[in-house]
Amino acid sequence: MPKRNDLNSILIIGAGPIVIGQACEFDYSGVQACKALREEGFRVILVNSNPATIMTDPELADSTYIEPINWKALKKIIEIEKPDAILPTMGGQTGLNAALDLDKFGVLKEYDVELIGATKEAIDKAEDREKFAEAIAKIGLFTPKAGLAHNLREAIEIQRQVGFPCIIRPNFTMGGTGSGIAYNTEEFEEICERGLDLSPTTELYIDQYLSGWKEYEMEVVRDKSDNCIIVCSIENFDPMGVHTGDSITVAPAQTLTDKEYQHMRDASMAILREIGVETGGSNVQFAINPENGDMVVIEMNPRVSRSSALASKATGFPIAKIAAKLAVGFTLDELENDISEDGIPASFEPTIDYVVTKIPRFNFEKFSGASNMLTSQMKSVGEVMAIGSTFKESFQKAIRGLEIDKSGLDRFEKKLNKSSLRAGIISPTPERIYFIAEALRMDYSLEDLHTMSGIDPWFLNELKEIVEFEKNISHKDFLTNKEEFYKAKQMGFSDKKISLIRNEIEDDIRKVRKNLKINPVFKRVDTCAAEFKTSTAYMYSTYQEECESNPTDKKKVMVLGGGPNRIGQGIEFDYCCVHAAQALKENGFETIMVNCNPETVSTDYDTSDRLYFEPITLEDVLEIIEIENPDGLIIQYGGQTPLKLANDLEKFNVPIFGTSPDQIDLSEDRARFQDFVKQNNLTQPPNGMASNNEEALAIGNEIGYPLVVRPSYVLGGRAMEVVYGSEDLMNYLTEAFQVNDSNPVLLDKFLDVAIEFDVEAISDGSRILICGILQHIEQAGVHSGDSACSIPPYNITIETENKIKNEVIKVIKNMNIIGLVNVQIAYVNDTVYLLEVNPRASRTIPFVSKALGLPLAKIAARVMAGISLEEQKILNIPELKLFNVKEAVMPFNKFQNVDPILGPEMRSTGEVMGIGKTFEEAFEKAEIAAGVTIPDSGSAFISVRDIDKQFLKEIAEDLTESNFSLVGTKGTVRALKELGFQARQINKVLEGRPHIIDLMKNSEITLVINTTEGRESIKDSASIRRTALEEKICCTTTIQGAVAICKVIKNQLDWSVQKLQDIH
To answer: Shortest CA distance to 911 belongs to which of 851, 859, 952, 858?
Structure first.
């Protein structure tokens, strides 16, 4: 069936900000969908609130809207664009829920818009767990014993039938949000109350917990003619109980018998037909009882999912692209498989002759008090994928790609006692594989480990063989035994891991390996197990005979990606890497991408000319360089991951484009940077550097408190803190960060109430282009990644702007910077202070690029390759007509008992952008897009620290003029009354009942303004901020954030929408 001719324009709904459970895989799918539909002549309208996406680049769609993803904003866009159809299956749960809301509020009917890719009925049937269970029963398959509850009373009744343990899942949520496993009544009621609150339909599905069952996923694609293919089978390493996004997963499934696989394959196809998924990709999850082979269906996603991105990268089959074309009428047999050269149709099921392992990346260290126990609610912030000839090889490659300072199944520093070891094996945590490895070294049996962990014996045996081979590596003759060395490499042991086992230097191991002529070869991902030719250079390393890389002798550039997403290093860096590849391809370079993140656009097979899906480690990168011999590397775009390799790459005479490793080191090494500041008469806050506790205390006493303390070489403010006295400082030095000669700590005078700025610039060595001055909305003390910011600045004078520009130009002129540079500034008491210089891509580059309508990462990539700003005809920056506000999105709702306070350590997972004619309009849009509802009436609770009381008059005036009543604690109420405002006094939590928490839980408070300082005060007021989060009360923990929110309340606007193509 050819494409539909009754459709002209199609609206694609994006997934919004990166959150836990919904990451950049939806940028990848959205980009593929935009390309596929425009290729077929459709007019594409795109809506997404996330500026750090390739899909929101203006050239990807005909009309691009960076707007909040809710039905009201979408209605305004539909009114302007009048699309014929909406494709909601590329935007994760956000896209599906938004589409259902458009139907619910009559927008689809009013404007005669059709849903394609998935009908409302199919979405309902798959997402409503009761309807889903009925559908599964109808086709003779089974789901766990379960029931649907709309309130706690119904939930308790269902639990009595299902029994303990049971699993509670809220309907229409993503990433297992709000779900949990209950073993007793107290746990059950707590999870139910939270789940009812989080479900958009206030529904809970309660089913029996299948402890120890094995979990599998099938990626299925179906077309309108009922052609159905399995793209990939995926097996979870962990048994049931760990969300599949948090489990190690392996493709293809390793422990299914052929009979079980065929049964699951048939069931998957039957499920798609019964649910009514006529076109596109779906993900079906199963559980199998290892005792008797019984199979049940857990759930399905009638859309492109996280697993779809993994399956696409694992097989090379572009699920999102094919799904988009199927949605407009094509059938699988009419579409070609892009990766194969011989005109193979997309109806051929992919076949793979290698093993793929995905390991999730966690950031529990960012959330003090959070449990690292893995449950049915997803908590990982990213993932790494590795490809190898065997499970052992891909598993060890994946570990070293994680960026957690592990090169394999590394040993614990301290010896474990039996009870700690046992607890580590039983409890599903990110560290469980290392506990199992330790147990195997102590000769625990596979049977005992299987009983304790529930992990399949096949996987445990694979780990056992890895651990046992460590003894061979330790043997004194290992380095002269070529056969043994080669076997170690085939099993995935890196040079670094071998050096750690043998207690030798990695470089020496590399030299021995090279002398023995042991080198990896590169194989191609081709979807057909090498049965047909492939023209696509998508490769992975392995230790076999034949190399399929076939490098060219063209002028080439290699871009090093950022590895797995994590807090502090997310999609923004991948965006820059993609832009580097695109720009230099346009300028005649052959582009080579190296990365190991399956969620990203950078690892799409058509982003660069050649793709190496490899860990970003020195060994892996050098092997690719050896075979490709690039003219230069771009290492400044992938965040800290490739930057850490800079000095080592230089030692191997690898040509690096742009700013040199020495200048990068100058900016990162705090001692060198301090010297640079003094030599060039730049102004920094009073500071010092300490290599031990005594030095730190002496510097603290000399400079005076409060202080910002931080280590060298970090991203995302890791281990950064504001301390308010010597006791706070000692706690930091002993708890958060071990200070010594190789780990010095920098102590800066904390410029409280200063305004912070990020300045983005490009330098080509002779010309400096100041691209944007971003004013932080939160004052100093909040990490720039967590602070909202505005471009242009919203309340400073031209004189101040010029002062900042002059300071930045002075800095850049005295550093040999070629390419992008980010300079962080604080402004207080008419003085410009230099905080730090980052001669690399920063996380605000995509945001500034969208605000200006200029692709800064592309411009800078060309500069790094030797094409000056003048040659590019980029001599000035366009004047901004609108305000642009970036807001950070926090994951606090995923972590129980964590204080949702902003501070110097970054904790946001993503960002959104608001565009408006005024600052207030842009800020309100950004807040709505970030999931914050700013109230328009009610009572405001205000409790602020003494230094912030200078802003009380402005805040109170805005609130009282908007008919808010004021509530506060004793000191704040006294200050308000002195200013002439009426306010009700309420107790702090420690002052007796009734207190502020009582009012919040009784829905008597609609806005919380709570600023505090010092460890004790922060601890004492944490329950206020946590209650605000749980009760969905708008809450700000900074005074400037409060000022901005109050301005929005005072100037209530009916905002408009504008496409990027009209703005620029």
So the answer is: 851
Nearest to 11, CA basis, from 111, 113, 92? 113
Please identify which residue in the block is written with the tokens 């402890």: 211
Residue 671 contacts by C-beta under 8 Å, 6 or more apart in sequence? Answer: 689, 712, 744
According to the model, what pLDDT value does residue 305 have? Answer: 82
pTM metric for this prediction: 0.93
Average pLDDT in the 828-845 region?
93
**pLDDT digits 0-9 by tens, 882-896:** 999 999 999 888 887
Which residues, including other chains, have CB under 8 Å from residue 197's CB and lie 6 or more apart? 178, 1030, 1032
Alpha-carbon span 659 to 816, nearest angstrom = 7
Rounded Cα–Cα distance for residues 205 and 195 (Å): 10
What's the confidence (pLDDT) of residue 993? 87
Query: What percentage of the chain exceeds 70 in pLDDT?
Result: 97
In the block, residue with structure tokens 């099921």:
349
Cα 704 from chain centre? 38
User: What mean pLDDT, rounded, does the chain reach?
Assistant: 92
Taking alpha carbons only, the member of 322, 354, 337 closest to residue 535 is: 337
Q: Tokens 């999912």 identify what position?
A: 305
With 70 as the cut, is the pLDDT of residue 1 above it? no
Average pLDDT rounded to a whole number, residues 671-677: 87
Give burial (CB, 10 Å; 0-12/13-18/19+) of 875: exposed
* pLDDT in the model for residue 236: 97
Q: How far apart are CA 582 and CA 604, in angstroms?
A: 12
As a dihedral over the C-alpha atoms of residue 114, residue 115, residue 120, residue 126, rounded to 10 degrees, the angle is 160
The residue whose two tokens read 């590329």 is: 90
Hey, which residues does 748 pair with through a beta bridge?
687, 708
Least confident of 189-203, 427-441, 487-501, 580-594: 189-203
DSSP 925-975: HHHHHTT----SSSEEEEE--GGGGGGHHHHHHHHHHTT-EEEE-HHHHHH
Q: Which residues of 910-927 are buried (b: 16+ CB within 10 A; e: fewer)?
A: bbbbbbbeebbbbbbbbb
CA gap 97, 33 in Å, rounded: 19
